[in-house]
Amino acid sequence: YDGHSDLHVGITNSQGVVYNYDQEGVHRAASGWEQCISIPLVQPDMWELLQHWDKLLQEFSLEEAWLPHRYEEQQHNCFTFALAFVNRVRQGRGREPLSKAQFTESFLLPHTREASRYLTLHQQLAHRDVYIVPLAEQEQ
């Protein structure tokens, strides 16, 4: 990732299938997201929500709002899809919806900053004569 193009956003079910929305509608992909940044949205102790997650996501993805002709690159896109799902789940738990800015600040930016630092370091090391050796177990 070069930092100059838009990122694509999706939501996974419990089996790792990524639901994502674009100009062709909702897609379900079991592969092709190996280079993604994974951002946890649900605490592990929220077992009750985790039990219903897949059903909620499946039903949400079938709604009319996510038909291909409704896609609009700037205002109704993959980010809108992810945020709307998160807010649907929040609403079901009696919580206030997040704005785009709140969602970005709370969930996306911390993880993308960390990934950016890692990618920058990786690129710098890749362009130098550096050899990285894993430490032996007793040295760790």
General description of the model:
The protein is mainly alpha-helical and 140 residues long. The protein has a domain at 10-98. The protein is 41% helix and 9% strand. It has three helices and three strands, in the order βββααα. The protein has helices at residues 47-61, 78-92, 100-126, and strands spanning 10-12, 18-22, 25-29. The chain has a three-stranded antiparallel beta sheet with strand order 1-2-3, covered by helices on one side. The longest helix is centred in the C-terminal third of the chain and has 27 residues, at 100-126. The protein is globular and about 55 Å long. InterPro entries: MKRN2OS-like, MKRN2OS-like_C. This is MKROS protein. Residues 1-125 form the MKRN2 opposite strand protein-like C-terminal domain. It holds the Pfam family DUF4796_C.
Supply the number of helical segments.
3
Tell me the Rg in angstroms.
18 Å
Q: Give the percentage of residues in beta strands.
A: 5-15%
The largest sheet has its strands arranged as 1-2-3
- What average pLDDT do the residues reach? 87
Helical percentage: 40-55%
Residue ranges: pLDDT <50 for 5 or more in a row? none
The main pleated sheet reads as:
3 strands, antiparallel
Structural class of the secondary structure composition? mainly alpha
| Count of extended strands | 3
Distance between the termini: 31 Å
